[in-house]
Amino acid sequence: MTTAPAEKRHRTSLAFHRNFRQLWVGDAFGQFGAQLTGLVLPIYAVTALDATPWQMGALTAAETAAFLVIGLPAGAWVDRMRKRRTLIVADVVRAAALAVVVAAATAGAASIPLLIAAALVISAATVFFDVAHQSYVPGLVGLDHIVEGNAKLQATQSVAMVVAPAVGGALLRVISAPALIGTTVVTYLVSAMALGRIRHEEVLPRREDRRPLRTEIAEGLHFVVRQPLLRRIVACTSLSNLFGSIGGALMVIYALRVVGLDEAGLGLVFSLSAVGGLLGAVAAERMARWVGEARIIPVSAVAGGLTYALNPLASTLSGVVPAEVVLVLAGFGFSFWVVVYNVAQVSFRQRLCPPALLGRMNASVRFIVWGSMPIGGLLGGWLGTAVGVAPSLWVAAIGMTLAALPVALSPLRTLTALPRPDDEPTTA
Predict the structure, then answer these.
(1) CA atoms of 267 and 244, how far apart (whole Å)
(2) Which CATH number describes the domain made up of 17-195+213-413?
């Protein structure tokens, strides 16, 4: 009787879940390092290495290329691995790749090809990290806490997106970009140490139950494509990422060369914009209850595309409204709706999928939705060279809004609750 209040607290909040806290701490340091890297590498490429739009497109493509190349087999491999160990190794590999960049820059040997090579290595490690991470959470916290766990992890990412760009932009005024990149090596190593403190017993499939890799990969893809609602969500996310990567490849050039911000100003814009993502993570569960956990998916997809359109308007309205203000409004609204969308759709996927298939399902989804990103990055580099940076951002904004059609024109717009595994239809 005396332990009932503590048990209730454990059931109502993952803040009292020891293993989740270690995952949370590791995720916090990893996300902070990732956000610093995402800010500093493009700035270093543009300002120190004089990168062209095409080179920035190639760098953007390299950051996600592995999802297209090895995304599918990674899921089957992860389902055969201990996921905690996979997370730790991925952190160490990313730290090593960035350490090489720092060493080369210190020796005066840095180049765009080196940055692209490092981005490719980090991309490969991130494939395994992300697939293992999403597959690890349900078994670690239990199905009843999936939404809470995802919301807390999304909130952590959003806090990192707020703090890291502001800190990074300010530090770039007093230290060099390579020195700042060096701090990300430390954050990844701290993340690996925190993950190593998790004490959770993983049950791996028996070796004799394994089947050919091709068969296991096909099972993951088959699960994704045979679920009508999941199929539409994946289509929406993939198209949105395609056009988002067109814009993402050019945003640093747009802000520094077209709008005229400096590095610190760009970092501040990114930081204030990310506050929207933090609020989205905090409000995701409540909005799902208000709007409906199914209906919130098309609502957030449409709203995200519309708010992104403020980005190319920044240069047009600069004589009326400061460009920094417009960029912050665009980033704030877009980040908010993206996080709300992600919490809803990731939670649906995790709840719907059998535990033994989670790695392959997540890898199949990532192959489709992140595999479009390197293509978008290359398209962004080509469009920025062919028609200019600002017009290319308009292409990105219009494309992201239209990408919402698969979910906006689906049963999701009329449903309030998402189907459970036992009542989800399996045919279109």
Answers:
(1) 19
(2) 1.20.1250.20
